[in-house]
Specification:
With 425 residues, this protein is α/β, with parallel strands linked by helices. Helices cover 39% and strands 20% of the residues. β12 and β13 form a beta hairpin.
Length: 425
């Protein structure tokens, strides 16, 4: 179940750290849940949705199509900030209070200071909107030494005063976390995994990567004659501080190894299912003892950052690869399950000591008429559901379905204007 969720409440009182009431939100006929935690996103892709040649294609074709689009538009702080603003705003409006942004695409070989500036732009956009961000300094075909130097500089610049408790790379206010993560064995070699692993060890960072999607397995077998998880284990990336996204093509033996290693997983059905890249056997992972979170992946494959809609999809397709997952189990994946992969015991629940991230969902409309279990109804009913109010760290960031911290239309207009300045194909 979702720990701490409440049903059909009346008023929600938002108080500051000093106990003084700051706001009272109308929560009549509403369900209150923890804020959703999107455990796997690629925020830059919010500027690259529904591109020609990127829908319903093999991942081997999708990857170069996306890379060509990134090269054409260019890498600059303005684009990164605008793409992140749109992605974070979309998330907040859909109840996502924390996003793990696995940032894989960089201007290869650029000065390390330039990569720090790009990371700052992304982080600044999230902070301005009031969303929590886990910035994953990723890598895709990067030079290992350059990627490691950039990751080291990013964490040093972004989190100069980290929290004393919990994982490293978390800011004192808990609004920012830095992690590292190669794209996967299909693009990054052993040296990259080792180099970024050393950065993680030095700063006590969480590690994240992707494995066992269609192309990942095929390329690993082609290049190394071995499956991706065999390589990750050899390279020291099957350990408790590692989260692996996708895992569509895993055997029972591999699931047992993941569980024994204490690895956490992220399910991303909104990406994998429509692109035809597979369905992760979530029930088998959970039964084996693997903690599973939920992510949307990026706009280049999913087109949306609506984690609750993807939770609904995860529930619906689960029966294709095993027993159907209960709605409350999937909702728990989208909250505390995702937080577990970040090493954040302050997120994803409403118990004492939580980070005061929550969503208020109106369940009084026709879509919820006749619903016996309002929490299950959050997923089964109304696929496009959005929360009425969203609170992050005790701060109201969405009130009555509208952003409090920015003008939605202005964010859209600014990104569109930036993309209009892109050279034509």
């Amino acid at each position: 179940m979702v720990d701490g969720a409440t049903e059909r409440t009346g008023e929600l009182v938002v108080a500051g750290h000093d106990g003084v009431v700051e706001e009272v939100l109308d929560a009549t006929d509403c369900v209150v849940t923890p804020g959703l935690v999107n455990a796997h996103h690629h925020l830059l892709q919010s500027a690259f949705r529904t591109l020609p040649g990127t829908r319903g294609v093999a991942m081997r074709d999708w990857l170069p199509a996306m890379a060509a689009a990134y090269r054409r538009v260019g890498h600059d702080p303005e684009l990164y900030a605008l793409a992140a603003s749109v992605g974070v705003a979309e998330g907040l409006l859909c109840g996502v209070t924390t996003i793990a942004d696995h940032h894989l695409n960089w201007p290869h070989g650029a000065p390390v200071a330039d990569t720090v500036a790009l990371a700052r732009a992304t982080v600044g956009a999230a902070r301005a909107l009031g969303g929590r961000l886990v910035f994953v300094r990723g890598s895709a075909l990067d030079d290992p030494a350059w990627a490691a130097a950039s990751a080291d500089a990013v964490v040093t610049a972004l989190v100069p005063d980290p929290r004393a408790e919990g994982p490293g790379g978390v800011s004192a206010d808990g609004m920012l976390q830095v992690a590292v993560g190669p794209a996967g064995a299909h693009s990054d070699r052993r040296e990259t995994f080792l180099a970024l692993g050393e950065v993680a060890r030095r700063h006590r960072l969480r590690r994240r990567t992707q494995a066992n999607e269609q192309v990942d397995t095929a390329i690993a077998l082609e290049k190394y004659g071995r499956r991706p998880l065999d390589l990750l284990e050899e390279w020291g990336w099957l350990e408790p501080d590692v989260t692996i996204a996708h895992l569509c093509d895993v055997t029972d033996e591999e699931i047992g190894r993941l569980a024994a290693a204490g690895v956490t997983a992220t399910h991303a059905p909104g990406c994998d299912v429509p692109m035809g890249w597979g369905v992760a056997p979530v029930a088998r992972l959970l039964e084996a003892g693997v903690r599973v979170g939920l992510g949307t992946s990026g706009g280049g494959s999913n087109d949306a950052g609506h984690l609750l809609a993807d939770a609904r999809l995860a529930m619906q397709v689960s029966g294709l690869v095993g027993p159907q997952l209960p709605a409350r189990t999937v909702l728990a994946m989208a909250t505390e399950g995702s937080a577990a992969g970040l090493g954040r015991d302050d997120l994803g629940h409403l118990r004492p000591g939580n980070a005061a991230d929550l969503c208020v969902w109106d369940v009084s409309g026709v879509a919820d008429a006749g619903v016996a279990d309002p929490l299950a109804g959050l997923l089964w009913a109304s696929p496009g559901r959005r929360p009425r109010h969203v609170v992050v760290g005790g701060r109201v960031v969405v009130r009555d379905y509208r952003l409090v911290t920015a003008d939605e239309a202005e964010l859209v207009a600014r990104l569109r204007e930036r993309l209009r300045r892109t050279p034509p194909v």
